[in-house]
Amino acid sequence: MKFIVSSSYLLKQLQVLGGIINSNNTLPILDNFLFDLDNKSLTVSASDLETTISSQLEVESSENGKVCIPARLLLDTLKTFPEQPLTFTIEDNNTVEISSNHGKYALAYADGEEFPTSVELKDPSSTKIQGDILATAISKTIFASGNDDLRPVMSGVFFQFSTESLTFVATDAHKLVKYTREDVQASQVAEFIMPKKPLNLLKSILAGSEDQVTIEYNESNAKFTFDNTEMICRLIDGKYPNYEAVIPKENPNKLSIDRNQFLNSVRRVSIFSNKTTHQIRLKIAGAELNISAEDIDYSNKAEERLTCDYQGDDMQIGFNSRFLTEMLNNLTSDEVSLEMSLPNRAGILTPVDGLDDGENVTMLVMPVMLNN
Amino acid sequence: MDAAILIRKIIHVDMDAFYASVAQLDNPELQGKAIAVGGSEIRGVVSAASYEARKFGVRSAMSGAMAKRLCPHLIFVKTDFARYKEVSSAIRKIFYEYTDLVEPLSLDEAYLDVTENKKGNPSASLIATEIRLKIKERTGLNASAGISINKFVAKVASDINKPNGQKTIPPEEVIEFLEKLDVKKFYGVGKVTKEKMYRLGVFTGMDLKSKTEEFLTEHFGKSGGYYYNIVRGIQKGSVKPSRIQKSLAAERTFNENIASEIYMLERLEEIAKEVERRLLKSKIAGKTITLKIKYSDFTLQTRSKTLDMYVSAAALIMEIVKELLFQSSMKDSVRLLGISLSNLNNEKKKAAKPEKSIDVQLKLEF
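^ Those are the sequences you sent over. The predicted structure of the assembly is below.
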């Protein structure tokens, strides 16, 4: 088997695929890319058993064949080449020979049949969504997902599709983000939990892409198809917590404020907060928001005052500044609204402006109980 | 060493059928009748019964219907806490004539430490007699008293010659007294502990005394050590006179229900002034102001607000009360209005070193 391919074209595809390869695999075969050649079409795949991603490339060839080529070695080599055609030749002595303008390189390859085959989706449902919309949905939510091994369902992002809208939810029980697109619909109701790793990969591949992504899914797997790429991944098994129940319906104390100003103040003040709790205190009275933090152990203390638009009772509430920073950072609006009820109930952070039609973001953050 | 331990003289004063007696005192036609305070023949529970009613087996915490069955001619009387408090404070005044070491347990019960007393009277028994006499003179009510070397024995003793009697357990008799005492009478021994003790063959103080401290600790945990000591007449707890006041309130029940906020404001002004007077008298101020509203259907509503600073002036209190009053409209006409201040500035100042913060990150409840 033999094919000729552009070096930078191949590198670009392999770098995307390489993101799925674990650095220390228990199965050595997973350290390889699978090259599956069918005349002018070369399919390259990478897998970590949970997720398999493959891309189709056009190459110069008239042969067929299937081999596994060591990923690290190949990527390291490809990175060094300026753009040029490369010739891959599978020799009989179990080596692949790559010929460039500069010389020849031989890599040991494994039999293509050893590579784990990716699952076929049985009776999948499917939905189409524009690439950048999916990328946005992922980046808006994924940061809020948890890392708790005891609650694996919360380590992923919940996809909730209906005939009216698509909803994406992530939470670690301290914070929660619900991102809804009413401008995209599914043909039928479906719910599944996507693990973080393939989502991070999708996020980076799809950012800014106007390609349509086809999402196919059944009980146990989901498949994302776009452009020349296809990704199949195993879903997180289990029931997602009833997140709707924890979103407060009545939050009478409403604060509106410039997002950047708020974010900068929180960042600055939080430098003075306790290094383990990262706790800051918001005191709101009239049109004044007072943000303060104190690290008693080191006698560090900071306080800032901001003017804001506030309707509600005077109140004092504590938050972990890291949560607030992450959330405010993730939003892009000029102004945000923070709705609260009591110092021990969740605050709801929403953008006031800058949303597309049919786009909705709701962020929940649980406070820290202050002991006065 | 033993000689250095001063034997204390503790009096436990307990009013006889306090609520019922106050009711009988205020309504002479009830004298000598079987009455129950609180509850009614249909609903509620009896909070106190007169001795006449107790003969029929009527007890406090019994349902009104049950009490009526036991004693068909039982008369039910409404509770009147304002009046009980008034009588109670008159009684406390008497206590303070003898000692400042007064630990009130409730409106009708208190411990007094008269080891050193203002009258210089060396006999606790005589002081108890005097106190009971003064209570009778000034309030017309009967009290019983127990006198001994610690709170526990004094409390048990006050029950012995009840009603209208007193009992002294002198230091030399304490041990014997405790040995004969049924374990269920020991302070801290309730139904469950009693059964456990009975199962272990502990029926009297004597039995309890025969057990080692290790044995008691093994079976009753921390309380074991306490039982071990108490049966030997050792009780560490002293009479604690200063229970910190948590709140201060004044309220008025109106002869006729009020429907208009304008009239309510007038009344609230008076109440606020009364609160101010009491605050100044105790030299305290509070942060949290609570408005209490009792509607004509007896439903109770409270509205409160906590300020950043301590207030005691009537004008300031009224400002907040007004806010609370107009916060939402009245559900009904009003029969009682009250103002209370809590979060008082009488708490002992915390130690100079601030406590380690124990702030808790809250979680969403899935």
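Chain A is about 20% helix and 45% strand. Residues 7-18 of chain A form the longest helix (12 residues).

Shout if you want it in another format.
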